[in-house]
């Protein structure tokens, strides 16, 4: 192959990459396999928009996104994600990263809606994140930080938990662990997520009055020496 032909081929490859449609890149890079879907994808891989996007059970909404060039040199698909907050959804900003054996969320802040059945029927309405980061490498949690607040829809066994449960993320063993507590300190939920997306949510409520105890029992909670507990399990 002559030098001219080599340069021509290189230029064509670079032009293809520069103009690669975002909708095609989502599939090629493996974001669909990671659970990312959208009603419509427009623009290029470097500057595009995903409308009504979701990551598994989490509603991201309409977000602007683009691939970062420098991580790509290391074989990592690093997408910056930003939502302006129009339409009452609130702003969202952070990044998602995907490569062989590696999945990460970096410095994600904002509110994300969640389907009602995402945590085994636990009535979670939304998740509020403050600089939330997590890195799974080879199926193991390697790094986790940031604040998480679960906002619950309505009452559970007559208890008003609309102020939500909040806590900080950390790695424990191979899993991501987020211990959450209500404002009163009587409600605690420990959410554990492994590298395959399987989760376990252990919900504990300290209650001693008979009416609340009856309501908790009817809601599927079991009485223990430490209060009332129920475990929700599933996979995102």
Brief sketch in words of this structure:
The protein contains four helices and 18 strands. With 236 residues, it is α+β, with helices and mostly antiparallel strands. Strands 1, 2, 3, 4, 5, 6, 7, 8, 9 and 12 form a ten-stranded antiparallel β-sheet that branches. Strands 13-14-15-16-18-17 form a six-stranded antiparallel β-sheet, with helices on one face.
Describe this structure in words.
The chain is of the alpha+beta class and 236 residues long. It is built from 4 helices and 18 strands. The chain has helices spanning 3-18, 22-29, 69-73, 210-218, and strands spanning 36-37, 40-43, 48-55, 58-67, 77-83, 92-99, 102-114, 124-137, 140-152, 155-156, 159-160, 165-168, 170-172, 175-181, 187-193, 198-205, 222-224, 227-235. Strands 1, 2, 3, 4, 5, 6, 7, 8, 9 and 12 form a 10-stranded antiparallel β-sheet that branches. The chain starts with a helix and ends with a strand.
